[in-house]
Design brief:
Elements: E1 2-5, H1 9-15, H2 17-23, E2 28-32, H3 43-46, E3 52-56, E4 66-70, E5 76-79, E6 92-97, E7 100-106, H4 115-140, E8 144-150, H5 174-183, E9 194-195, H6 196-200, E10 227-231, H7 233-236, E11 239-244, E12 260-264
Parallel strand pairs: 1-2, 7-8
Antiparallel strand pairs: 1-12, 2-4, 3-4, 5-6, 6-7, 8-10, 9-10, 11-12
């Protein structure tokens, strides 16, 4: 299973996404920040052969948008998570596959002191309620849950290189980190979800999945780990290996994010 913020699928398709998709061994690929209507995408990117594709574009043209590609037809598709404010925001799509519900999430990025941050808080509150309900309903059906995507929060100091300089910035605010920690069962209450890549790589910085295009952030690996596989414990225990598919060079990048790929056993 792979998750990647493509930073505009039309642009990514011209820079290497199509070639990457043609050789990936992933059974499911979750995309974020697609920023296009399905009809605007070239067929090889928007409706590639061999994939069942669900697109959830945003009502606001050229913004957000999530998609989910799977090797088999989903048993059920859901766009949005029941919060009226965000139903057409292009930030969440969910499908049922055999034994597992998989979702692609693009959580708002926010900006301290602006309405964007207030929107992010509202989204987080509503989405946490959905996560809790989804976990309980899936457990009742004997299913696992996997929410892949750009969560736009670095959970720990090990999840971004320049954490000291970002303590007052959106993406590393104490309240955001606490919220994500609660999803993972830290603090009061049981979140019931596992940060799969951190479980597989417990004692390392990163591995980072996003680097600014500014300066030499990529070359110096001055990145953030904000792209997650968030799974219920049963599925997390089946994670065999995980990696960030970091491009070999700055010139070979087709997004400012890199694919995060996890192999799950049966």
């Amino acid at each position: 299973m792979t998750s990647v913020n493509v930073n505009g699928l039309r642009a990514a398709a011209k820079k290497g996404f199509v070639e990457w998709l043609a050789v990936t061994e992933a059974e499911v690929v979750c995309l974020q920040e697609v920023r296009a209507e399905p009809g605007q995408l070239p067929p090889e990117a928007g409706a590639p052969e061999g994939w069942s594709v669900v697109h959830a574009p945003a009502a606001a043209k050229g913004r957000a948008g999530v998609s989910l590609y799977s090797r088999r037809e989903p048993d059920r598709v859901r766009i949005g998570f029941g919060a009226e404010e965000f139903e057409s925001s292009g930030r969440y799509v969910e499908v049922d596959l055999p034994g597992v519900t998989v979702a692609s999430l693009y959580l708002p990025s926010g900006e301290v002191g602006t309405e964007r941050q207030e929107e992010k808080w509202r989204f987080m509150a509503a989405f946490r309620a959905h996560l809790d309900a989804l976990r309980l309903s899936a457990a009742a059906d004997g299913r696992e849950v996997l929410v892949c995507g750009d969560w736009n929060i670095a959970h720990r100091e090990a999840d971004l290189r320049n954490w000291r300089a970002n303590r007052k910035n959106s993406g590393f605010l104490p309240e955001e980190r606490e919220w994500l920690g609660a999803v993972f069962g830290e603090g009061e209450g049981e979140g019931g979800y596992v940060d799969v890549m951190r479980r597989l790589h417990p004692d390392v910085e990163g591995p980072y999945s996003w680097w600014s295009y500014r300066g030499q952030a990529f070359d110096r690996d001055t990145g953030w780990r904000i792209d997650y596989h968030v799974a219920t414990p049963g599925l997390a225990e089946r994670a065999l290996k995980g990696r960030v598919e970091r491009a070999a060079s700055h010139a070979e990048r087709w997004s400012d994010h890199a694919p995060v790929t996890v192999t799950y056993g049966s």
